[in-house]
């Protein structure tokens, strides 16, 4: 797949000293900035992530200055951006970056629910937060605590699959099924029969759900809303045919993090 050069240019040109905003007229934020940095790096156009340091509170990364509360998914995306930069691009500030990566990972692990899921302020469904955090920890978390957190999340996803193969907080949806599938396809362990079976059933159900009208709005703002392109990207990523584990069929795309 070839990414249009104009898209890469737009992403690069949108980055300023404080990062990039979600849209025109809005302030820059750590969530959109980290996703932009990570996308550019995965596309072979890495940019130094120093714009993220202004969001570092010393404990976690705020979405914007003066944020009331904290976002699990924002910190998962920051972990993706800083972790990938540390592993692939090197850094003149490697010690600071490594410290931040380990600190964010620990902060995320501390916020995991006892049953293995995560919740976040921006989304009604725990499958979104669990997907974002599991992928970030599986790629950039170090040590037994990170591995255990990923395993708990994977077990929670497996045990909450619906009889028809879908996933969803209130009913099975294409969006939540896509997030759950990406958790199962991202774990860095040999896929067992339970994962293979869950993925086959999930992909079959996702094909039936994809494109249906009337799916619920699950994203939080002033009102609930449904960002169509983000949801569509998640579904496509879950169905992308890349190196399937035995018996699973298509797997997630190499770059599947969404804002």
**Tally of DSSP β-strands:** 4
Q: What count of structural domains?
A: 2
* Share of residues in strands: under 5%
Largest sheet: 2 strands, antiparallel
Task: Label the structural class.
Answer: mainly alpha
pLDDT averaged residue by residue: 89
What is the alpha-carbon Rg in Å? 17 Å
Structural summary, described in words:
The chain has helices spanning 5-13, 30-42, 72-89, 94-110, 126-140, 143-159, 174-186, 193-209, 228-238, and strands at 20-21, 28-29, 219-220, 224-225. By secondary structure, the chain is mostly helical. The protein has 2 domains: 1-12 and 27-111, no CATH class; 114-259, Glycosyltransferase. It has a two-stranded antiparallel ribbon. Strands 3-4 form a two-stranded antiparallel sheet. A hairpin with a 3-residue loop joins strand 3 and strand 4.
Short descriptors:
9 helices; two-stranded antiparallel ribbon; Glycosyltransferase; 3% strand; 2 domains; mainly alpha; 259 residues; two-stranded antiparallel sheet; disordered C terminus
At a glance:
With 259 residues, the protein is mostly helical. The chain has helices spanning 5-13, 30-42, 72-89, 94-110, 126-140, 143-159, 174-186, 193-209, 228-238, and strands at 20-21, 28-29, 219-220, 224-225. The chain folds into 2 domains: 1-12 and 27-111, no CATH class; 114-259, Glycosyltransferase (Alpha/alpha barrel), CATH 1.50.10.20.
């Amino acid at each position: 797949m070839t990414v249009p050069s104009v898209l890469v240019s737009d992403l690069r040109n949108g980055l300023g000293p404080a990062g990039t905003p979600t849209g025109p007229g809005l302030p820059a934020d750590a969530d959109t900035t980290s996703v932009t940095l990570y996308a550019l790096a995965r596309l072979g156009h890495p940019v130094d992530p120093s714009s993220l340091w202004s969001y570092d509170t010393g404990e976690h990364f705020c979405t914007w200055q003066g944020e009331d509360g904290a976002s699990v998914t924002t910190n998962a995306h920051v972990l993706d951006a800083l972790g990938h930069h540390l592993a692939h691009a090197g850094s003149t500030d490697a010690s600071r970056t490594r410290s931040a990566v380990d600190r964010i990972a620990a902060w995320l692990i501390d916020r995991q629910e006892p049953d293995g899921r995560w919740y976040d302020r921006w989304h009604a469904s725990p499958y979104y937060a669990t997907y974002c955090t599991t992928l970030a920890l599986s790629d950039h978390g170090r040590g037994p605590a990170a591995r255990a957190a990923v395993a708990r999340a994977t077990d929670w996803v497996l045990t909450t699959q619906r009889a028809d193969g879908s996933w969803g907080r209130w009913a099975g949806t294409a969006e939540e099924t896509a997030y759950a599938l990406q958790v199962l396809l991202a774990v860095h362990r040999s896929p067992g029969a339970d994962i293979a079976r869950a993925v086959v059933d999930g992909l079959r159900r996702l094909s039936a759900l994809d494109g249906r009208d009337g799916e619920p709005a699950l994203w939080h703002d002033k009102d609930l809303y449904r960002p169509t392109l983000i949801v569509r990207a998640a579904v496509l990523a879950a169905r992308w045919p890349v190196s399937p584990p035995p018996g699973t069929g298509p797997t997630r795309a190499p770059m599947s993090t969404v804002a």
